[in-house]
Amino acid sequence: MRTVPGVDLAPCLELDAAAVDPDDVGPTLARLTTGWRLRIVGPEREVLLLRAAALAHGALDEEITTEITTEVLGTGVRTVYCAACHHPFPTTGTAARCPGCGTDLDVADHVSRRHGAFLGVPR
Amino acid sequence: MHDLRPGDRVRARSPRSSFTPVETAAHHILVAGGVGVTPLLSHARWHAFWGHSFEVLAVGAPHLDVLRALGPVTVARDRRKMADLLGPVVGTAPWKSHVYTCGPPGLIAAVAAAARAAHWVGARVHAEPFVAEPAGGPFEVVLRRSRRRVRVAAGETLLDAVDRVGVAAPRLCRQGVCGECLTGLVGGTADHRDHVDAAEEGRIALCVSRAAPGETLEIDL
Ligand code: FES
Ligand SMILES: [Zn+2]
To answer: Is B176 left (phi over 0), alpha (psi -120 to 50) or beta?
Structure first.
């Protein structure tokens, strides 16, 4: 746990996004008391998915900090949420064909907190 | 309104409240001071009906028998005892708890302080004062960064006035308790009415504080 001299820091649970399954985050959080913070560290895609899971389990934005370890933002694997059929799928780059419905998508810069995914806009 | 007669049809909206239980909470802590118990009675009935986890901390509150029939109630003899109770309750509350206080501003401030000491974020702390702050007269405020001069009417808050002219300002409790709306006070003497010592930091709580009589304020907004 981090300490800052003279500052009474909130207790903080560090989560390695590459190692923690988003489905397991509910029981993990249920063991905490109110006042804890979450710090989610890892590659962009896993961090966004884990943050979305934590929010779904009642964490508040103010209680979560994230650190992306991917070297250049947006260059790693990202989850894209197809605007046509709502299928989420991983991809790299700025364009992709949706494996759910076959639509050609542009990957927008808009990222959804709830889905932890970038919006795929049909061309 | 005055033109209505029996039998007329009117449009109505469903009731609105700024002091409602948070549906996603895992546990609700209801803190009642004196007759501030009134809205919390409704909360307690609601939670008992739906089987939500909740507890009541009360100081000088009536209707304790009604509350006790609904769920766990802890009674503090006075405000000081209440402060002693709050620390452990807030400090050990399960993940996803929310606290709701209805009572005098001093009690609301005590709960906010306990929650802050236990590292709760402001969004989990809710309050409704039952003693309204006395209104004040009109005054003017200069918004330095937006380069505007705004007249705050009697009975209007500084925050309302800033909203009215469309300048964005943060807020949460609107009761001078959370500190969210504190803004730098660059000129003029204020009548500080907050409970977070804004004056000491050279700031002003837009939600409750006003200009001292005859003063014009200048704020960093
Ligand atoms: S909004 Fe909370 S102190 Fe003003
Ligand atoms: Zn699709």
So the answer is: left
